[in-house]
């Protein structure tokens, strides 16, 4: 437990120690302890540890710079968006009030639909995948995180995801996720433009309509 930066419990530390002992007993050294290969692995391990520490410092700086911004407080109010995700959204999307509407925001990260039709032929819709690929990947991970953490707090996006999956013709997972990305951006844009934090409420529990 003293040889790692992780905060391990005694139970978890014992479990890892038992695994290491087992692996040591069934393994056979392929290289001498003083060989070049061993020294090289040690060197890259030290480099990796240093990079991880530098990354943690940069993450703390990113959070600190973002916390004073009103938009940051709006972002973190939405379930599934943590402090780091909110700070990354600020970095990738910038001031989203510069967009005239949420559709322009969707186009900025490249999830607007690309449709093609010629005569009676109509190709299946695809997203453009233009714009900011880092922002697109970030919003994708945020939606996934919302679904994983659905038990922690009610969320309109998660409700919409399962609504798409339970239709008579269920949407494929990636299609449903992109639709949720679209809705997430629209929700965030509306919240920022009105200066309001996230609030979950059903307008009609019978019809299961959701108000954003």
**Shape descriptor:** elongated
Count of folded domains: 2
Number of strand elements: 6
Helix-strand makeup class? mainly alpha
Helix percent band: 55-70%
> What average pLDDT do the residues reach?
83
The amount of beta strand, in percent, is 5-15%
Q: What about the largest sheet?
A: 2 strands, antiparallel
Number of helices: 8
As a whole number of angstroms, the C-alpha radius of gyration is 23 Å
Order of helices and strands: HHHHHEEEEHHHEE
Uncertain segments are: 202-212
N-to-C CA distance: 47 Å
Spatial order of strands in the largest sheet: 1-4
Assembly classification: single chain
Organism: Paucilactobacillus vaccinostercus DSM 20634
InterPro entries: Transpos_IS110, Transposase_20
Domain Transposase IS116/IS110/IS902 C-terminal: 77-151
Protein name: Transposase
Structure notes:
By secondary structure, the protein is mainly alpha-helical. It is built from eight helices and six strands. The strands form three sheets. Strands 1-4 form a two-stranded antiparallel ribbon. It has a two-stranded antiparallel ribbon with strand order 2-3. The protein has a two-stranded antiparallel ribbon with strand order 5-6. Helix 2 crosses helix 4, helix 4 (83-93) packs antiparallel against helix 6 (133-148) and helix 6 (133-148) packs across helix 8. The chain is elongated and about 65 Å long. It starts with 9 loop residues before the first helix and ends with a strand. Mean pLDDT is 83; it is low at 202-212. InterPro entries: Transpos_IS110 (IPR047650), Transposase_20 (IPR003346). This is Transposase. Residues 77-151 form the Transposase IS116/IS110/IS902 C-terminal domain. It comes from Paucilactobacillus vaccinostercus DSM 20634.
């Amino acid at each position: 437990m003293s040889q790692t930066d992780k905060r391990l419990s005694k139970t978890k530390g014992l479990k890892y120690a038992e695994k290491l002992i087992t692996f040591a007993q069934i393994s056979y050294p392929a290289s001498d302890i003083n060989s070049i290969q061993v020294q090289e692995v040690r060197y890259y391990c030290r480099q990796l540890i240093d990079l991880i520490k530098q990354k943690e410092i940069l993450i703390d700086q990113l959070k600190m710079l973002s916390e004073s911004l009103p938009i940051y407080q709006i972002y973190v109010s939405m379930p599934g968006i943590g402090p780091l995700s909110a700070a990354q959204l600020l970095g990738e999307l910038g001031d989203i009030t510069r967009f005239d509407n949420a559709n322009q925001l969707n186009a900025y990260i490249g999830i607007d639909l690309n449709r093609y039709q010629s005569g009676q032929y109509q190709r299946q819709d695809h997203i453009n995948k233009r714009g900011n690929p880092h922002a697109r990947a970030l919003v994708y991970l945020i939606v996934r995180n919302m679904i994983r953490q659905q038990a922690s707090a009610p969320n309109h996006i998660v409700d919409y995801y399962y609504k798409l999956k339970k239709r008579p013709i269920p949407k494929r997972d990636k299609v449903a996720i992109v639709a949720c990305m679209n809705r997430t951006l629209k929700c965030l844009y509306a919240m920022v433009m009105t200066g309001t934090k996230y609030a979950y409420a059903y307008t009609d529990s019978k019809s299961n309509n959701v108000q954003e």
